[in-house]
């Protein structure tokens, strides 16, 4: 028993602890620490859930796991290890996804407190909604390198996890990836897509071949459309069957694959002349005629992580990883496929070599395997110390929550080092709920901008309602007075709708869709805002607050009046980088603008283990991550 | 052959195991960690939490010194002391369980009271890279800190007392070059371009370029050219206020190409130039922190015992005063920018080459200085850190001990970080305990307030120590004596303040609260301090980031913390 809590804690707190039942979501870095802290603070009844299994890269901080546990359930091993040290605690472990329908409203209602120790936004959104629906207090937390934060969410009292718009995940236009890469990340994304095309699940959004529908080819559009089939055939003669089937037929022959992707496809790209009027054209490579201008550092054979590889070395690694991956695929038997994993060496070798070969072709600087791994795998550095600090803070907030002292709860931010005011910790007042939040407002509404002639019901369901709006099993009905069902959560009920365009259901500008997710106990009205063309060729755009749209389009219009690629946002960014000695006017601006620039700076870290920043100031903390991180590893 | 493979295997395993942290402190930080020997005095909850957070990332070895047996309350709040171990040696049980955390870390223990060990064999403690002590009474702490201070072994003292966490670092002198400040400027020298940069920029002609080349010229070159143009029109002066900088940006905007219809082309590089104008026009100067180091007696008066850091600092100073013409060596890195890789690499080379030249001049000065203080090629200099990484022929950073001469690689690293070198000097315990210390006067300035800052807990903990000295127990230790202890503690506080010659009114609420704590160690507070303290140890070991100087207080009730210099 945790003897020492008695005496230090007042009687009310003691009783609250003794009679509590709590849920920990996630048994990773924070989860392990948290479980230990709860057990040793006298929490008598703890449930913990995690879908993951243990990986060797967890062992530097997830102290309840050892080498012999690699591959086993995190939740289960965490429970066993904790019990081994402290057999008195009652711990229930689930090796499962918190998003499964087994963990419904009734499940959440059992607990006095839910604590998230998660590493992804999808699950965070879901738990946020479940806690709102069950009216249970939630403690959110996250760490990234030396930075961390803890925050408390209580329905109608504080902001919920989704009250502020979340920075959009950085995606790249398909034609940049397929036709005109200009940064290393473009080549890395392409290489990951290539991996999936060759070994994984076929996803039409991950095509790696030249894209004849590139908007830049608009002048030649008619011609291109007519000829595209024929041309694609010419570019390797494989268009009609899947890339995977063709590669398999060649026996994953390195020379054939290399020459297809790095010679013939590139030659085909070169034939799209419009693309190269203002760009440096790519230079095709031939397997049998690789540049031999080997950099000075490569006298020896060792291929290592933190050195740049020559083209020849890349080709060698490409061939070697191809054959290992082929073996793995064969082992899986008929219909098998591989899932790309940054911690799987051949998969990582493949992506590094393919990305760097492509980078060479397009005159883009190459990257070391170490760096490619962090970019391709969205790696957020993680250490024991930060998790320990954050888990300590969570319990302290948890005690206030149990006492229902929500006015005393804080959002606490951990700095990398004491700031100029000598504070390592920055506690902030919790924000009030956003009345326009599309999740926790009494009548949630959201506006989605899209082209109703181009968006199918399937895209609406998968990419917008599930992907963008975080629902798990939605029912969608058109608010047309007739109650037309567009999407049903019952399998098969609305299958005939999936490939149809929204416009075919009479969905046009201003139409309202009523969405209902039974599991999340969540009703949301989507207001459709039709536009023929969206900025940056996006497929759709989700806007929480309607007034934002008006502001946005006013601004867009201003830009259009000025110049085609309006400088305003760029000018904004400039203010954000203003130096300290800048005039006061500029510094005020900086404060407001940081929010915009965050997502830009953080383009490689799509999923930091950090709660999405709630206010401008908080976001800045997080935005430091990537910036600083670059300077450490360089 | 087999051993080679075995070794490679170990490296791969370690690289995978430590991947997420290597991305923070690099191979050289990891190497420093792996050669570190840490001593823990007293396996309290706070002590074992700190060790856990050091063993997981892979220190070399640890030794636990503790003369006590495991008690029931230990098992209640210490994860590494189990119920079935009650009555056994706390040092042994904790060491066994801690060692399970990481098979690459060697654990050891000594079942002996630290204070007794200090009397019988004080040099035992000198063998460690750093000593971490928890729950030491004032008397033992004095002995320990005085001894380690004289031996130059860093000491971190930690304590969790109810809702209060406390840390104190004792380190005579700690030098850092990878200090990772929060805001750094690029070192581009556009305000004082060096000849090779001028030559390179002049070799490119924006007016005659194809539009493809125009839109792929690095912004640095563009900004350089427009700056020269500006200077021509303004008596050779660079823009020096907001208005002028905006005018320069206007000039840049006008330089963006237009297409046949007169519409502006999408020239990302010009936009980058405009965006970077403010940053690039910050004058290159020696930062005040570095200036302080240059004026430090250790820098100005080198002698035969001077450490490598100070010899390099002096060489750097001499460089700045002479061939550097007032500026530090060029850092040699340029930011990512829109450009064709050919010219980007050329530009990169221009900076790199200049950086290498500057570093080699500093290196010559280092050799001269070594000579002037009577160090020959075979003499030893106190090394910068136990090991310095050096890129070997395979590009891997291999390690070699830097005894003897200061290596070229060290000098290069030093030059690259010239703007960020730092020296931390903590005050000793003797200085802190001096009743006349001016730090005390500063400390208590705001403690009379209605809402005093967390420094108030420093004063209270000192009063608690005095209480312990007098009564050999902590206030509120026994539940039935809390009330009498309140008045006793109040008396201790009054005496303490008298000794300090200060009149100060600390609210009774605080005294009551401290008594209610009864010296209990709350696990969650220990867990927090375990994280913060281990992070400070890692800073000291890796010589990355600047450790706190010198006292840290955490208030778990309010989730606030403060650093104080005492
Ligand atoms: Zn909300």
UniProtKB/TrEMBL annotation, chain A:
- The answer, when asked if Iron-sulfur is one of the entry's keywords, is no
Where would I find the Ubiquitin-activating enzyme SCCH domain in this sequence? 335-373
The superkingdom of the source organism is: Eukaryota
Q: Report keywords, A-Z.
A: ATP-binding, Metal-binding, Nucleotide-binding, Nucleus, Transferase, Ubl conjugation pathway, Zinc
**PROSITE patterns per UniProt:** UBIQUITIN_ACTIVAT_2
Name the Gene Ontology biological process terms. protein sumoylation
The UniProt annotation places Zn(2+) binding at 160, 163, 437, 440
Quick one: which pathway? Answer: Protein modification; protein sumoylation
Q: Where is the THIF-type NAD/FAD binding fold domain?
A: 6-438
GO-annotated molecular function: ATP binding; metal ion binding; SUMO activating enzyme activity; transferase activity
Domain Ubiquitin/SUMO-activating enzyme ubiquitin-like, which positions?
448-535
UniProt subcellular location: Nucleus
| Major site of localization recorded for this protein | nucleus
Catalytic site positions: 175
Residues bound to ATP: 26-31, 50, 58-61, 74, 97-98, 119-124
One cellular component term (GO) for this entry is:
SUMO activating enzyme complex
Pfam families with a match to the protein in the record: ThiF, UAE_UbL, UBA_E1_SCCH
Positions of the UniProt region annotated as Disordered: 556-585, 597-616
Coiled coil segments of this chain = none
Q: Which family does it belong to?
A: Belongs to the ubiquitin-activating E1 family.
Q: How does it assemble?
A: Heterodimer of SAE1 and UBA2/SAE2. The heterodimer corresponds to the two domains that are encoded on a single polypeptide chain in ubiquitin-activating enzyme E1. Interacts with UBE2I.
Q: What's this protein's name?
A: SUMO-activating enzyme subunit
Source organism (scientific name): Sinanodonta woodiana (Chinese pond mussel)
UniProtKB/TrEMBL annotation, chain B:
User: Organism source for this protein?
Assistant: Sinanodonta woodiana
State whether keyword Phosphoprotein applies.
no
Protein name (Swiss-Prot/TrEMBL): NEDD8-activating enzyme E1 regulatory subunit
The family database entries (Pfam families) matched by this protein are listed as: ThiF
Keywords assigned: Ubl conjugation pathway
User: Which PANTHER family does this UniProt record tie to the protein?
Assistant: NEDD8-ACTIVATING ENZYME E1 REGULATORY SUBUNIT, UBIQUITIN-ACTIVATING ENZYME E1
Q: Which GO terms describe its molecular function?
A: NEDD8 activating enzyme activity
Tell me its family.
Belongs to the ubiquitin-activating E1 family. ULA1 subfamily.
Task: Read off the InterPro entries from this record.
Answer: APP-BP1 (IPR030667), ThiF/MoeB/HesA (IPR045886), ThiF_NAD_FAD-bd (IPR000594), Ubiquitin-activating_enz (IPR035985)
The Gene Ontology biological process terms listed for this entry are: protein neddylation
Sequence ranges assigned to domain THIF-type NAD/FAD binding fold in this UniProt record = 18-559
Q: In which pathway does it act?
A: Protein modification; protein neddylation
Q: Which residues cross the membrane?
A: none
């Amino acid at each position: 028993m945790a003897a020492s809590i008695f005496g230090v804690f007042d009687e009310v707190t003691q009783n609250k602890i003794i009679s509590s039942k709590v849920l920990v979501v996630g048994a990773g870095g924070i989860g392990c620490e948290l479980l230990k802290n709860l057990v040793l603070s006298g929490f008598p009844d703890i449930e913990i859930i995690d879908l993951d299994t243990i990986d060797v890269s967890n062992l530097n901080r997830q102290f309840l796991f050892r080498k012999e546990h690699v591959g086993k359930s995190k939740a289960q091993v965490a429970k066993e290890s904790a019990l081994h040290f402290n057999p008195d605690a009652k711990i229930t472990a689930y090796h499962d996804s918190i998003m499964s329908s087994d963990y419904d409203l009734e499940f959440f209602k059992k607990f006095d407190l839910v604590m998230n120790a998660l590493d992804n936004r999808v699950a965070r959104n879901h738990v946020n909604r479940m806690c709102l629906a069950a009216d249970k207090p939630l403690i959110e937390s996250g760490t990234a390198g030396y930075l961390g934060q803890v925050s408390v969410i209580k329905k109608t009292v504080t902001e919920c996890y989704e009250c502020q718009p979340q920075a959009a995940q950085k995606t790249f236009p398909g034609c940049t990836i397929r036709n005109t890469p200009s940064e290393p990340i473009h080549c890395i994304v392409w290489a990951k897509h290539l991996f999936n095309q060759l070994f994984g699940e076929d996803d039409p959004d991950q095509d790696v071949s030249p894209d004849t529908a590139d908007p830049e080819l608009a002048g030649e559009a008619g011609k291109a459309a007519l000829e595209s089939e024929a041309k694609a055939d010419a570019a390797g003669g494989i268009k009609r069957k899947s890339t995977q089937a063709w590669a398999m037929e060649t026996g994953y022959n390195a020379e054939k694959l290399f020459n297809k992707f790095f010679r013939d496809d590139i030659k085909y790209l070169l034939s799209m002349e419009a693309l190269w009027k203002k760009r440096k054209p790519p230079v095709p490579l031939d397997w049998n005629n690789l540049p031999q201008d080997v950099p000075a550092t490569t006298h020896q054979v060792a291929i290592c992580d933190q050195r740049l590889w020559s083209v020849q070395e890349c080709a060698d690694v490409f061939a070697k990883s191809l054959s290992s991956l082929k073996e793995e695929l064969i082992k899986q038997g008929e219909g098998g496929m591989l899932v790309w994993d940054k911690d799987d060496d051949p998969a990582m070798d493949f992506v590094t070599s393919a990305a760097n070969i492509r980078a060479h072709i397009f005159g883009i600087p190459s990257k070391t395997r170490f760096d490619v791994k962090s970019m391709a795998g969205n790696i957020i550095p993680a250490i024991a110390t930060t998790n320990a600090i954050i888990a300590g803070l969570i319990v302290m907030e948890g005690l206030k929550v149990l006492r229902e002292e929500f006015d005393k709860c804080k959002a606490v931010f951990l700095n990398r080092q004491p700031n100029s005011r000598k504070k390592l910790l920055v506690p902030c007042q919790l924000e009030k709920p956003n009345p326009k939040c599309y999740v926790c407002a009494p009548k949630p509404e959201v506006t989605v901008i899209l082209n109703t002639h181009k968006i199918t019901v399937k895209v609406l369901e998968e990419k917008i309602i599930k992907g963008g709006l975080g629902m798990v099993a939605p029912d969608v009905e058109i608010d047309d007075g007739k109650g037309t069902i567009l999407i049903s959560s019952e399998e098969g009920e609305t299958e005939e709708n999936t490939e149809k365009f929204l416009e075919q259901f009479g969905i046009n500008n201003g139409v309202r869709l009523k969405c209902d997710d039974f599991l999340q106990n969540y009703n949301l009205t989507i207001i459709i805002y039709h536009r023929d063309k969206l900025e940056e060729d996006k497929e759709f755009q989700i806007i929480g607050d309607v007034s934002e749209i008006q502001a946005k389009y006013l601004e867009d219009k201003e830009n259009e009046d000025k110049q085609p690629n309006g400088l305003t946002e760029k000018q904004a960014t400039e203010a954000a980088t203003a130096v300290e000695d800048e005039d006061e006017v500029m510094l005020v601006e900086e404060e407001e603008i940081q929010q915009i620039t965050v997502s830009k700076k953080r383009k490689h870290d799509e999923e930091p283990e950090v709660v999405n920043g709630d206010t401008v100031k908080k976001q800045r903390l997080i935005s430091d991550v990537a910036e600083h991180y670059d300077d450490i590893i360089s | 052959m087999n051993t080679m493979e075995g070794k490679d295997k170990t490296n791969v395993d370690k690289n995978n195991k430590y991947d997420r942290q290597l991305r923070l402190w690099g191979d050289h930080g990891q190497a420093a960690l792996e050669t570190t020997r840490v001593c823990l005095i007293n396996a309290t909850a706070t002590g074992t939490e700190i060790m856990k957070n050091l063993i997981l990332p892979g220190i070399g070895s640890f030794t636990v010194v503790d003369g006590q047996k495991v008690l029931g309350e230990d098992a209640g709040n210490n994860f590494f002391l189990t119920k079935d171990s009650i009555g056994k040696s706390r040092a042994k049980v904790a060491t066994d369980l801690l060692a399970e955390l990481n098979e690459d870390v060697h654990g050891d223990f000594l079942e002996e009271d630290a204070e007794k060990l200090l009397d019988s064999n004080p040099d035992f403690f000198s063998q460690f890279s750093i000593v971490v002590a928890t729950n030491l009474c004032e008397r033992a702490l004095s002995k320990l800190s005085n001894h380690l201070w004289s031996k130059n072994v860093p000491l971190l003292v930690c304590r969790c007392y109810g809702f209060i966490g406390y840390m104190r670092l004792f380190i005579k002198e700690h030098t850092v070059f990878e200090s990772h400040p929060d805001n750094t400027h690029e070192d581009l020298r556009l305000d004082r371009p060096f000849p090779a940069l001028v030559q390179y920029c002049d070799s490119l002609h924006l007016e005659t370029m194809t539009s493809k080349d125009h839109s792929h010229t690095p912004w640095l070159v563009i900004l350089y050219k427009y700056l020269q143009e500006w200077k021509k029109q303004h008596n050779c002066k660079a823009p020096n206020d907001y208005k002028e900088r905006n005018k320069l940006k206007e000039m840049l905007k006008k330089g963006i190409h237009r297409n046949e219809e007169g519409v502006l082309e999408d020239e990302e590089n010009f936009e980058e130039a405009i965006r970077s104008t403010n940053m690039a026009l910050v004058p290159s100067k020696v930062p005040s922190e570095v200036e302080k180091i240059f004026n430090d007696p250790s820098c100005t008066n080198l002698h035969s015992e001077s450490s490598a850091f100070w010899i390099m600092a002096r060489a750097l100073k001499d460089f700045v005063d002479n061939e550097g013409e007032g500026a530090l060596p060029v850092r040699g890195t340029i930011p990512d920018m829109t450009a064709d890789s050919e010219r980007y690499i050329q530009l990169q080379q221009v900076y790199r080459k200049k950086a290498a030249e500057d570093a080699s001049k500093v290196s010559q000065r280092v050799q001269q200085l070594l000579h002037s203080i009577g160090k020959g090629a075979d003499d030893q200099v106190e090394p910068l850190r136990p090991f310095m990484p050096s890129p070997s022929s395979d590009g891997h950073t291999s390690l070699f001990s830097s005894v003897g001469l200061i290596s070229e690689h060290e000098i290069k690293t030093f030059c690259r970080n010239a703007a960020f070198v730092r020296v931390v000097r903590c005050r000793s315990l003797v200085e802190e305990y001096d009743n006349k210390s001016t730090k005390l006067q500063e400390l208590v300035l705001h403690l009379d307030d209605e809402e005093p800052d967390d420094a108030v807990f420093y004063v209270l903990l000192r009063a608690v120590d005095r209480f312990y000295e007098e009564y050999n127990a902590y206030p509120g230790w026994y539940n039935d004596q809390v009330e009498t202890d309140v008045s006793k503690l109040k008396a201790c506080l009054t005496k303490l303040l008298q000794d300090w010659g200060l009149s100060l009114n600390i609210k009774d609420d605080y005294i009551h609260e401290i008594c209610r704590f009864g010296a209990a160690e709350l696990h969650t507070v220990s867990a927090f301090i375990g994280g913060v303290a281990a992070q400070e140890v890692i800073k000291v070991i890796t010589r990355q980031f600047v450790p706190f100087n010198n006292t840290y207080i955490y208030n778990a009730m309010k989730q606030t913390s403060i650093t104080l210099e005492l």
